[in-house]
């Protein structure tokens, strides 16, 4: 399954919407996504499962690139 993770790069700062970034990652579950990213100091805001038409839409984006963790 492919997930889209919305995050802030610095977990110690107050989240600001304009600083939110995202990445795409393949994992078995949301828990697995968190485990794969635990060594990074990200403030994870949302982990969203992508499937069906939503996944196709995201894959068509030029910014779609699976993170290798």
Tell me what you see in this structure.
- The chain has 69 residues and is of the alpha+beta class.
- The protein contains two helices and four strands, in the order ββαβαβ.
- The protein has a four-stranded mixed β-sheet.
- It is globular and about 35 Å long.
- The two termini are 14 Å apart.
Record keyword descriptors for this entry:
alpha+beta, 69 residues, single chain, 25% helix, four-stranded mixed β-sheet
Q: How do the strands and helices of this protein lay out in sequence?
A:
Elements: E1 2-8, E2 21-26, H1 30-37, E3 43-50, H2 52-60, E4 66-67
Parallel strand pairs: 2-4
Antiparallel strand pairs: 1-2, 1-3
Assembly state of the chains shown: single chain
Helix content: 10-25%
Strand order of the largest sheet: 3-1-2-4
Taking the alpha carbons of the first and last residues, their distance comes to 14 Å
**Structure classification:** alpha+beta
Question: Brief overview, please?
Answer:
With 69 residues, the protein is of the alpha+beta class. It has two helices and four strands, in the order E-E-H-E-H-E. Helices cover 25% and strands 33% of the residues.
